[in-house]
Structure formats: structure tokens, C-alpha cells
Write a structure and sequence with these properties.
InterPro entries: AAA+_ATPase, ABC_transporter-like_ATP-bd, ABC_Transporter_VariousFunc, P-loop_NTPase. This protein is of the alpha/beta class. The protein has 2 domains: about 220 residues, P-loop containing nucleotide triphosphate hydrolases (Rossmann fold); about 70 residues, Alpha-Beta Plaits, CATH 3.30.70. It contains 11 helices and 15 strands. The strands form 3 sheets. It has a 6-stranded mixed β-sheet, with helices on both faces. Strand 9 and strand 10 form a beta hairpin.
Length: about 290
Amino acid sequence: MTNVVEFKRVTKSFKNFSLKDVSFSIKKGYVTGFIGANGAGKSTTIKLLMNLLRKESGEITIFGLDQDKHNQAIKERIGFVYDENCFYETLSIRELRKIIAPMYQNWNDDIFYKYIDQFQLPEKQVIKSFSKGMKMKMAISFAISHDPEFIIMDEPTSGLDPVFRREILELLHDIMLDEQKTIFFSTHITTDLDRIADYITYIHGGRILFSKERDELLSEYGIVKGSTDLLDSDIEKEFVSIRKTNVGFEALTSDVKKSKEIFGHEVLIEKPTLDDIMYYTNKGELTCTH
């Protein structure tokens, strides 16, 4: 299986935060969801991926090319969608097209106007008058009109109402019908990834905790529920984190098979959501009294 992107032991430090030996890959022809709490390092990773920040150490290759040596050639093959509008808001779509289209050798007006029409976006209206949903549709139209092989999306559905979000996800599904396309989808709305993601990469505290096939991940992790009488200090160490109440405990395990061996039929083990995995990993042990 071909990897479009390879991060190998990449480090980037700031005053109060650092990425530490970040390594993961993005597989060609699939949607990889990128999750993590605010401040975990998602935006920094994406800026490194786009070569908007300089790494301090490690290696980043895209399409098998060294990022530093082939920056322009790589960006010709990438589409980028950011959660905030990064276009001149006093211009119209028609005026923006005159600026952006010449930047790409493979710009395709047929693709561009297909989506402008599909999204019913007014070409002559200034962008500052657009709703957030309209701005996101416009950004996607520009990002995919040079027929990119790799599409990077940073929080594309953030702040959108459910109808807009569903439309965006359906569009991404249609794009992926071309099995040569690859999408890297950073989001805190993990339910969106249930619809489209094939792989999940999870960053926490500047480190990659895992990068796995989504179905495999959700079969390995589990929410274990049972009586606190079943716990001791050694057993508690088997969990990612645990939440205790006066009626029992809930815990996240990263090894469902082992939990079944330990507890047998004395506990209930439920399939987790991505939100569950993030919540327990971020919170650690919580003790409640209600």
C-alpha cells in the first residue's frame, strides 16, 4: 500500500508546547481522520505538512518527495481547505478566480464552475457577505479545481449547521469515488469521521498515540463497566483511564481481549466512540461521588 505522506521523528518546539518525534503515514486512496484536543498539536502538524512551519528535526516526504527540495511541485498536487476564510473578503469569486487559477498548471474551469453551480454560489457578490457555509463551499471549490491528488482539510465542518455538514461530507464521499484521491481530515467533530474516515490518527500532548484503521481501532478499544470490588491497583494499571462512582466504574481499555481474560463475564464491555477514546485519554482518572 502506497503512503502519500510520511512523517518520521518530526520535532517542532515553541515556548510552551512542542511536537515530539512525531511519526505517522497517510495512505493513498483513503480518508485519514486527524483527531486530538485543542492544543494537542493538530494545527502545528498541518502547518508542517503544508511547509508553513519549519521542522527542527526529522523527515517529511509527500508523494515520495522530500518536502524541502520539492516544495512547489508538491503543492501543485495538493488542495488545502482551512476552517477560517483565508481569501480577500472584499473580492468576489470571479475576481478571486482570476488570481488563483493561473497559480496552477492543472487548473480546470469545468470542475470549478461545476461546483460553483452545484453550490449555488454567486460569482459577483463580495465574499464578506457570504455565510460560513457558503465560504466553506467556496474554499472547497477552489481547493479541488486543479484536480489535486491529496486534499488537506483543517476543521472543514466546524461551525456549520447539520445540513451544510452533511453536504460537505457527501461531497467528500463523491471525491473519494476516484480511488486515486487521498484526504487528510482534521476535526474535533468525531461523528463526521464515522461517515467517511478509513484511518484515524490521534495526537495527544504533541505525540502520536496511534494511527490505525478505524474499524481495527474500535475493535481493540472498549468501555469496561463493572463493580469497584473487581478492581485492585494492578488491574487499574491495565486501563487507559478509569472513572469511579459510588455504584461502580467505567474505564477505557486499549485491549478488549485482555480485559475479557481478566474479568470474564463479570463486567460489561461496550464498543467505544472516538469521543470516548479522546475523553478518557485526555481526562485520565476521574473520581465522582454521585
